[in-house]
Amino acid sequence: HGLAPSGPLWQRGAKSQVSACHLPRREHYCRCGDRTGRGQISVAVVAREQMQSWLEALREAGISAQGMVTDSLGVPMQSEHRNILIDADRALIRSDKNLAMAADRELVGTLLSLEEDVEEGEESEQAISVLIDPEAEESISLQVTQWEAELNCPVSKELLDYSTFETLCRNYDS
Questions:
Q1: What does the alpha-carbon distance between residue 34 and residue 11 come to, in Å, rounded to a whole number?
Q2: Contact 44, 9 (CB under 8 A)
Q3: CB proximity list for 22: less than 8 A, separation 6 or greater
Q4: Going by C-beta distance under 8 Å and a sequence separation of 6 or more, which residues neighbour residue 137?
Q5: What does R_g of the chain's alpha carbons equal in angstroms?
Q6: Three-class secondary structure of residue 95 per DSSP
Q7: Which residue, among 111, 123, 106, has the nearest Cα to 10 in the 3D structure?
Q8: Range of lowest pLDDT (2-11, 104-113, 115-124, 125-134)
Q9: Which own/partner pairs from 31-40 qualify as long-range (CB within 8 Å, at least 24 positions apart)?
Q10: Which one of 103, 120, 171, 172 has the fewest beta carbons within 10 angstroms of its own beta carbon?
Q11: What is the pLDDT of residue 24?
């Protein structure tokens, strides 16, 4: 079983081959994952200092981690949608089984527009489903409207039945 840490851990499908991550290995932890059906390879990158901080916190709590998984992989998948779960000022974005990232809410429009630029020759009108805690619905409505305008695609809002944490736990798929 994995542990879902919060923080700047992200995954991204990479075209062609991944050659030992072009990040300084002493500063970043890089892990290659599964190959997708489109021939992409999942890659996770996190600052080494952040990873060490998470592992130290677990050790102090008497927990030995068998693995660590980004919490954004617990975002429920809706077929043919990019899925965004709002967690306070963070947005957890998941658009495929192995394609997920976490970002500040303010960066969602920019990140999704960059994702569209990377997808060569594919239709970019993939709908967006935004999952929101009912208590936060009012504070996110304007941003959702902005994303719809910026990305020129349909955006739907769905209220969570459970807390954000419980939703992520219920949808984690090892």
A1: 11
A2: yes
A3: none
A4: 157, 159
A5: 16
A6: strand
A7: 111
A8: 2-11
A9: 33/98, 34/98, 36/96, 36/97, 36/98, 36/99, 38/13, 40/13, 40/14, 40/15
A10: 120
A11: 55
- Distance from C-alpha of 95 to C-alpha of 121, rounded to nearest angstrom: 17
Find the farthest-apart pair of alpha carbons in the chain and give their distance in angstroms, rounded.
Answer: 49
* Cα 152 from Cα 24, distance rounded (Å): 37
Pairing of strands 81-87, 28-35: unpaired
Instruction: Identify the DSSP state of 74.
Output: G
Among 12-21, 74-83, 84-93, 151-160, the least confident range = 12-21
HEC assignment per residue over 122-172: CCCCCEEEEEECHHHHHHHHHHHHHHHHHHCCCEEEEECCCCHHHHHHHHC
Whole-number percent of the chain with pLDDT over 70: 72
Distance CA 60, CA 103 (A): 27
* Owner of token pair 């779960």: 85
* pLDDT for res 135: 85
